[in-house]
Automatic annotation (TrEMBL):
Residues in DUF2179 domain copies: 230-280
Record field: transmembrane: 20-40, 60-83, 90-111, 117-139, 160-181
Keywords: Cell membrane, Membrane, Transmembrane, Transmembrane helix
Domain of life: Bacteria
Higher taxonomy: Bacteria, Bacillati, Bacillota, Clostridia, Lachnospirales
Protein name: YitT family protein
Membrane topology of this protein: Multi-pass membrane protein
Keyword Cell membrane part of the UniProt annotation: yes
Amino acid sequence: MKKNVNFKIDPKREAKRLVFGLISAVIMAVNIKTFVQAGGLYPGGFNGVTRLIQTVFDQFLGIPLPFAPVSLLLNAVPAIIGFKAIGKKFTLNTSLIIVVTSVLTDIVPAIPITQDILLISIFGGLINGAAISLALIGGTSTGGTDFIAVYFAEKKNKDVWNYILMGNGIVLLLAGVLFGWDKALYSIIFQFTSTQTIHLLYQAYNKVTLFIVTDNPKAVYDAIYEVTNHSATEFSATGMYSNEGRKMIYSVVSSTEAKVLMRKVMLADPHAFVNVIKTDILMGRFYQKENY
C-alpha cells in the first residue's frame, strides 16, 4: 500500500508534540542526575545500557565516558528502523528528544535529594514512567525501546511493556555480576515502578468492548463513529422484564476513546444502558488512530 506523502501539518498537534517531548526530556535528564546516578541504578531501555557501559569503562578502564555519545550511538539503529516502520515525524521528534535528554544529562548538575536507596528506586521509577508517558501522550517517545513499544501498540495493538521489562533483566544480570547485586535488585524496583506508571498513564493500547442497549441506535452509532472512526454491530434484543424490543450496539474502542464516547452516547440517548468490558485479546481488523 502506498503512503500519501502529502502531509497535512496540524500546528496545534505539532506544538503539543514538541512541548510534551521537551518537558519529558528535561524531566528524564534531571531524573537521571538526581535519582538514577545518585542511587547507582540502571534504568530500563537504552538509558540503562548507557549507564552500564559508562560504569564498565569507569570501573575497569578508568575512562569516564560522557552520557550523550553512548546514548546517541545506541539509539541510532532503532531510530532508523522507526523512521521506516513507524513514521517520519514521530521518529524525527523522538530523535530530538533523545538528543536533548542526552545533552542535558551531561550538563545538568547532580543534586542528590536523598540517600535512601529504596526511596530513590520508587520515586525515580515514578518520575521515569511519568516522563515516558508524557512523551507518548504528546505523540512522540523517549527513544530506545520506546520505538519497539510504540510500534507494537500502534501497529499491532499489543502491549509489550512487560516484555521490555523482562528484556531489561539482561542488563540487570550483567550489572549484578559485575558490580554487585544490591544495586541491580533495587533497579528492578525502579523499572517495575516505571512500567506500572506507564500502564496507568498511557492507555492508548488498552481496548474495551461496549455493549449499548438503546432505543436510538442511529444516534448512538453516529457518536461512536464521530469519536473513534470505528464501525459497530447492531443486534435486536428484547427486555425480559418489559418484553419490549430494543437495539443493542456492539463496538470495540480504545480505553481513552471510551471516556469521551460515554458522554457522547448519553447525550445521544439519555436512557441508554452501557456496559464496558475490558478486552484482553483482539484479533482481526481494527482501526487504530495514529498518534505520530
